[in-house]
Each structure stands twice: as C-alpha cells, then as structure tokens.
Amino acid sequence: MTSSAEMFGIMVIFIIVAVLLFLLFRFVMLWYWRINDIVDLLTKQLNNQRLILKHLTGESAEKDAE
After folding, report:
1. pLDDT digits 0-9 by tens, 24-45
2. Which residue in 9, 21, 22, 43 is a FRET match for 58, CA 20 to 30 A apart?
3. Rounded distance, CA 10 to CA 14, Å?
C-alpha cells in the first residue's frame, strides 16, 4: 500500500497533467477552427454596425455641430 502523502503527490501530478493537456487541446482546437480570427472579425463587424447606426440616427451630426 502507498501512504497518504504518496497518494496526494500522485493526485497533484495527475491534476497538473490533466490541466496541461486540457490547455493544449483547447489551443489546438482554437487554432484549427480559427476561433480567435472569427471573434476578431465579428468584433470588427459589430463596431462597423454601431458606426453605421450612429450615422443613420444622426448622432454624429449632432456631436459635430456642438
């Protein structure tokens, strides 16, 4: 039988390895599906839509007049 200290050490090592594998797998999946690029493009699209909405509602004209 192993002592409780050895079991604790094995559990800590297992958790560390599991977290590292999770992070590695997550990085590969984000890279493969280009998630980061998609998020950047969607953010740019949202900003452009907000800018268009401001111009359509006349908010920018009111701010320029002041």
Report:
1. 999 999 889 899 899 999 999 9
2. 43
3. 6
Residues with Cβ < 8 Å from 36, sequence gap 6 or more?
30
What length is written for the chain?
A: 66
Task: For residues 53 and 24, give the distance between their C-alpha atoms in angstroms, rounded to a whole number.
Answer: 41
Instruction: Enter the tokens of residue 17.
Output: 């390895």
Position 58: which residue type?
G
Give the tokens for residue 24: 């590695």
pLDDT at 59: 77
Neighbour tally for 25: CB within 10 Å = 10
